[in-house]
Amino acid sequence: MFAAEIFMHRFLLSSPVRTLNPEEADWFYTPIYTTCDLTPNGLPLPFKSPRMMRSAIQLISSNWPYWNRTEGADHFFVVPHDFGACFHYQEEKAIERGILPLLQRATLVQTFGQRNHVCLNEGSITIPPYAPPQKMQAHLIPQETPRSIFVYFRGLFYDVNNDPEGGYYARGARAAVWENFKDNPLFDISTEHPTTYYEDMQRAIFCLCPLGWAPWSPRLVEAVIFGCIPVIIADDIVLPFADAIPWEEIGVFVAEEDVPNLDTILTSIPPEVILRKQRLLANPSMKQAMLFPQPAQSGDAFHQILNGLARKLPHNKNVYLKLGKRP
After folding, report:
1. Pairing of strands 149-154, 252-253
2. Taking phi first (over 0 means left), then psi (-120 to 50 degrees means alpha), and beta for anything else, what does residue 172 get?
3. What is the pLDDT of residue 316?
């Protein structure tokens, strides 16, 4: 789910929007692959990312003039960590770190999005996490399959390894789901991840998409792809590509403090509203916008990112620094 940086690089290498003449370029992209520094169990290790970023910027600023003329204002970076360029997976520590100062003028393309948060700069582009298109395609079942599961969720409710005392992980929202609904027959929830996970989502009406350490998760992508109404439990979340995906119309938003009332909230939604959301979720263009396919396809997440960058053009003249001046 952290692989968007790699696939964006691959896409741009063969994209017709790429130019080899820097004087023609509207944007400069530097692939750094900070998410490829992994823990033994395969998760990104963000703590060395600032050093990697500084080294990369030192390299491009000492070899070419383009960074120095704007201090990165016409550069973009893909930073798909939990809290983007704050480079930490725990919110409290991410806030303490803040966005790496070197990146303050650059455009950050990131999975993290939360309103009024120090880890989201104005002008950043929020994207979906990477989910494997071919793997999901291989698990599609007939569309007419009845949706016999009312609420579905698979994942952690507590993170005892990183939050042994409890209270930090998911701001308690996932724990509240478990404590309130583990014995509710309408809720098919568990920490087990079955081989039928994708098929089960296609048999569900509602799929819970609660925050974890960060507000976002691949469940948002999976829910849209599999036509399961996403129940978004993450206060102030900024969702990807709001101009292409009408999140308010396809999803259900539940405040973290209202999780104990989740059963009442969902059972009170009229059937015609559920059907309308399901019809919208069936739109192929909406699904396409959430994916990073290989090769790229019209309207996919790559092109949504390009649309976001294009909307920021032309660059204001004040992004270009006068000799010896700093912003």
Report:
1. unpaired
2. left
3. 84
